[in-house]
Amino acid sequence: MSKSLPSRSENYSEWYNELVKRADLAENSAVRGCMIIKPYGYSIWEKMQRALDDMFKETGHTNAYFPLFIPKSFLSKEASHVEGFAKECAVVTHYRLKNDPNGGGVIVDPDAKLEEELIVRPTSETVIWSTYKNWIQSYRDLPLLINQWANVVRWEMRTRLFLRTAEFLWQEGHTAHATKQEAIEETEQMLEVYADFAENFMAMPVVKGIKTANERFAGADETYCIEALMQDGKALQAGTSHFLGQNFAKAFDVKFLSKENQLDYVWGTSWGVSTRLMGALIMAHSDDQGLVLPPKLAPIQVVIVPIYKGEDQLNAIKEKVNPLVKSLRKQGVSVKFDVSENQSPGFKFAEYELKGVPIRLAIGNRDMENGTIELARRDTREKTSMAFEGIEQVVVDTLTDIQEKIYAKALAFRTENTHVVNTWDEFNAKLDAGGFVSAHWDGTSETEDKIKDLTKATIRCIPLDAKEEAGQCILTGNPSNKRVMFARAY
Amino acid sequence: MSKSLPSRSENYSEWYNELVKRADLAENSAVRGCMIIKPYGYSIWEKMQRALDDMFKETGHTNAYFPLFIPKSFLSKEASHVEGFAKECAVVTHYRLKNDPNGGGVIVDPDAKLEEELIVRPTSETVIWSTYKNWIQSYRDLPLLINQWANVVRWEMRTRLFLRTAEFLWQEGHTAHATKQEAIEETEQMLEVYADFAENFMAMPVVKGIKTANERFAGADETYCIEALMQDGKALQAGTSHFLGQNFAKAFDVKFLSKENQLDYVWGTSWGVSTRLMGALIMAHSDDQGLVLPPKLAPIQVVIVPIYKGEDQLNAIKEKVNPLVKSLRKQGVSVKFDVSENQSPGFKFAEYELKGVPIRLAIGNRDMENGTIELARRDTREKTSMAFEGIEQVVVDTLTDIQEKIYAKALAFRTENTHVVNTWDEFNAKLDAGGFVSAHWDGTSETEDKIKDLTKATIRCIPLDAKEEAGQCILTGNPSNKRVMFARAY
């Protein structure tokens, strides 16, 4: 607490790592690449979950739960899927430990080898589609609209808290449809849900788009995504929604009898967001003093700190503040009235600033005499002395205002850092400056790979709102009819 | 749907299995012992989670998340703990698959062997206490009151949906305290929370007690439990709360500096309930027609089925019923107005009966003429024609009444099936008849084992409210000063 954070301009990466630890969001565990999500971090994730879950249910989805383990043979059934995930799988091979007869402590029991190895799910398409085969016979069983909240494991070699971890928490929607059109609509609907959540809860503007073939989900016909811009000018993929075509239906032989009495393969989608969103949330808004949280996702929206000498002053403040606390809570505002005595007001101020509490109210003896209270906004760090009378409405309005302002700020940042370029030199200059770079590309994977090799930038997406526009590929000069969005990315 | 369930008296076990499948609660997956929790089953589990989570938070706990994987060496640090769990561990040994160069498809890559094997958590004491070591330095860091919602894996050889599965969902609370007394109070408080939940949400009476040394959690000094009685006369352990003493603090060297500036080991507790509660809920109340759900946990509390011929009649019914639906929902009642046209009212009646919807309202043409509506209670299967006017309040009151009545019914069943016995013959006769058998026991593990071998009955618990009473052990005749509760159990 005494040492201040590294600044963003000094060392952005170090700033992020330190902030995640000091704000009690997460830390590394003894297991390589697996994180511990600490209570404060988890309470933000819970708010995200609740909001997303409500949105999924409003769009007709229900939750279910499928096994953690996937038989190795299942993973192999969809060719590009296994290609995409085989390199980073945690594999269970045995089901028992025993005492080493040679005194080597507890060892894996060689007699307890599984007949078929099990993969800890990296994603659940295979185990879910193998189940859907039994659940779907006719068009009457469709659409099937299911979501799962779960942990998944991808054995990443380089990990970073929230952004890339071997185990992470996520939700994965898996839907089945009678027609291609309906499946595409579902894919697009869920992209809209994600964009809505990112913008209206996380206060984080996103570009909606389609991935190139190179960046597509292993087993999808089309991957839609939302891409956000972080304060260091790098892009972050915040959510994906996949149109799976009939790929998994074919791999697992899932057919249905249509209204017209025809047997056909089912159409599928899958879509997910993960604890990676925590990383995005942190990097989108926070500053050198600590977290900045949008009020809609802040576990504590308002903290009230009394400044007093002696029991009598504290009691007088309590008497005045308790009704305010009660009535704010009645309105659904989450308030902490911090009367703890071990820490000084200054210490508390720094602590709640670090933790991103949107509004801090402070009230001392002079305020009591004058009928005032001090309101500090976390986003702008402005402090204002105000009349205590009427403060409740000010707090409610300020929460709304903060939610809007931090979105507006992030949007202005993105606008400033989105560059339209037409030459290779400009392209490189803008990539080095940071941000999204909108440029023409000739549509080949070969060129995409070459650009990546040369610049470390990837095509984040082909924006859904990209206009038809004749141009020349930034690298090859070959014709292009649309700009795509490049960036260096997390 | 057309075939009726096996009856409980005919084949209780088959009745349970069929009910779980037909009511869309769960099914077996392709992975041995791992279940799929289907949407309807999961929606009941979600209601349980929400209620429990609220209770945990009201008692000062916060949620966090710890890794799925536990290094083998961690599990071994607490001697009795590893003894208890080593025999049923899923072990991860590799982190990659690859294509077999000899054409054998996808195989485990022998070059990707982990240096140390990882265990899929069977419970998280070890990984959590290894973390607490870093979180706890002084009495100021205590108590630490953390809960986790997670999946765990215990490689059971004989599995049954919900009751015993290789993977299950649960919550596990892990708390750390400065004093023994405080840790014991926490252990007891959480037992009370579980008992409160079982009785007031699940409508399932429970006996609160302490486990004998034989049945204690591996690593605990004392295990508290709640035990419920199922309709076939078998007991089911529904939740446990463990006083861990300083065992895990010692295993992971977790010390704190007390107010008196003394360095001492921390005191711990852990407590959990799992998806096993779903099995308990099903078996506690359901009948030969299907599920009977307590209104507080029913995903659909009221279903309204229209009985009509032609569009006009349906429209008239809709016009009358829609305001009722709206106003019930406003009161927080979850209502389904089933206007689907593919199925007959009779089919719908059977379906909602199978799924345990507490109240069914049916309204037809004659009701429309007479200003009536038919109300059917799932618990008693009584049908009553009532005035439509005022039905809203009747529904609300009936939901409360059903919640109370099914608890009362389960309590009466348990009272009838709890037997106090004093001789070995009586003991055996009552065990065969089914139910709890209250008897004297000499307090030795040896006698307990012998009784288990002879009768298959175990000591479910030493009830917390057991009175001091001189007596003789049912088997050995040795002196005893308290009765304990025996039963055959799930």
- What is the count of structural domains of chain A? 3
Quaternary: homodimer
Main structural class of chain A: alpha+beta
Compute the number of helices of chain A.
14
- Largest contact between chains: A-B, 61 and 61 residues
Low-confidence stretches of chain A: none
Which CATH class of the largest domain in chain A?
A: Alpha Beta
CATH topology (level 3) name of the largest domain in chain A: BirA Bifunctional Protein, domain 2
Global mean pLDDT of chain A: 96
What is the helix fraction of residues of chain A, given as a range?
Answer: 25-40%
From the spread of the alpha carbons, the general shape of chain A counts as globular
Q: Would you identify the CATH H-level superfamily of the largest domain in chain A?
A: Bira Bifunctional Protein, Domain 2
The biggest sheet of chain A amounts to: 11 strands, mixed
Proportion of residues in β-strands of chain A: 25-35%
Short synopsis of the structure:
2 copies of one chain form a homodimer. Chain A has 490 residues and is an alpha+beta fold. Chain A has an 11-stranded mixed beta sheet with strand order 3-9-10-16-13-12-11-24-27-23-22, with helices on both faces. A 5-stranded mixed beta sheet of chain A has the order 18-17-19-20-21, sandwiched between helices. In chain A, strands 4-8-5 form a 3-stranded antiparallel beta sheet.
